[in-house]
Amino acid sequence: MQDFAEFVNELTSGFTPVIGGDYKHDDYTYIDLSENNRELLKLEVASSEAFSAFIFEFLKNKNAKAAYGGYNELRTLYNRSELFNNREANRNIHIGLDIWVPAFSEIISPLDGKVHSFKDNANFGDYGPTLILEHSVQGRKFYTLYGHLSRRSLKGLKEGDQIKVGDKIAELGDFDENGDYAPHLHFQVIEDLNGNIGDFPGVIKKEDLDNFLKNCPDPNLLLKI
Fold this sequence. Notes:
Largest sheet: 8 strands, mixed
Organism: Gramella jeungdoensis
Domain M23ase beta-sheet core: 93-191
CATH superfamily: Glucose Permease (Domain IIA)
Keywords: Signal
Number of helices: 4
CATH class: Mainly Beta
Order of helices and strands: HEHEEEEEEEEEEEEHH
CATH architecture: Distorted Sandwich
Protein name: Peptidoglycan DD-metalloendopeptidase family protein
Strand order of the largest sheet: 1-2-5-12-9-8-7-10
Number of domains: 1
Radius of gyration: 16 Å
């Protein structure tokens, strides 16, 4: 069978939006939120308001409307949350793609699919409201995950709801409902959910990295930002 990453890359031929509205390809700029970004040392990362101001200033300086990045990125900003920073978990490698845009921005589906599951993962530092879509292309099943949504995004959803490419599927939540983060979308492509419903690890520990890189390839292979 074809390598999953190669399969995902061939699903789209060019820039494929997941943020609705008038965002164009040129409106995006890459942001490094790894431990190597010294600007983060000046920031009180425990404050979602301070982090929002940091993102806003970054976009202003770059003359951009949206920032993206974070796949396979070692981050220290998770140290604020016991969900990740405890002896058992020790998770600090981000395995999805983050897109930083204002709260309540529309989220659209990059592919045809259907609603697999959804859940409000309400722990501090967690996804908050989360949606998982199921896709089937050429007989191959896989999933996309959308985290840090608004709570009203989950109202009225039903498992099995059919989704067309470009359909509005959700909106971003603000810090008071999205796990206490500056507003952003966590987008992840997953081959095997391993039985998860409405949730799937988006930050993992180093020991699990190889398996997750295979199961969750770079989402930018699909979006081509």
